[in-house]
Fold this protein.
Amino acid sequence: MNQPEVFIAGLHLRWDGVRQRPHHLLTRLAQKLPVIIIEEPYGAAVDRDDVRHDGALTVIRPLRRRGWGEPLVDPQALATAKDLAGSRRCGAWIYTPMMTELIDAFAASPVVYDAMDDLANFDFAPRGMREREAALLARADVVFAGGRTLYENRRSYGAKVHCHPSGVEFVRFAADVGPHPLAAMLSAPVLAYVGVIDERLDYELIAALADAFPGGHVILAGPVVKVDPARLPQRPNVHYTGRLAYSALPSLLAGVDVALMPFAINRATASISPTKTLEYFAARCPVVSTPIADVVAAYGDIAYIANGASAFIAAVHDALRAPAQRIERGVAAAAGQTWEAIFARMWDELFP
């Protein structure tokens, strides 16, 4: 497979939002060759393209009066990207099936589909996403699946489908840092979830957990997205930080006694492979999770797995007494799954 001169990436996330799989992979891709990212439209009081450059990586955010909505590949943003790409040969690196128009617009080759989530199962998913993903899976030259369940559900498309669960910036999260001011001022135990606060969380479980530890504290660190704020537990010992800088996460985790993955068991979580698992492990946090399939399969002997509020509370009590050997197994798992190693394997499969 021939290398293009530039990759055009279609992204359903906000580049300046929570740092997730696309950020880790596309920044490393841009160390190999230029990358032009097109985001979905963003509601604004003007109609223009916000273009930001970071070395060989360029992000186009379409600011539109019409707000978010179809077409998700905005024509004006497409024209901006074509001007930036010029006459260079383009490849496509797609994160959402709703932006496959990029393939034909740039006569892209190769076509890479990095399936990081089963987006059709999320709330407010655009109509037709499942059918569009099937077409993209058939057309893509290479498919990377960001977890075991995602891979199993797509492996029928052949040898071009590769399983690459998400990784961790191990050195960052394993660093010996002082605790974040918020965690440092709270009485133990400090229990924390770090990530997007959305329809994937079990809010009744979180409320029960806070009530079970009235002398402790529950931190929910991340932006609230696509969920009615009335659903969020309100307790004196439940703290919402809003979005924290990625650089602040290691210090937050340094002050945490147990790291949480209190996911609801629903269609939106059926295929997730949480990036935060390895970040928690690298930070030497004992982890309690609901029975997310990928977490159970890969880390069931390291994380404490519990289904239901009473079992989850009991698991937190157990995690507070986690033996050193269990913590060290988590550290070792994280050390073996760095983003650098993952991207190197993906690059070799793309251009052997």
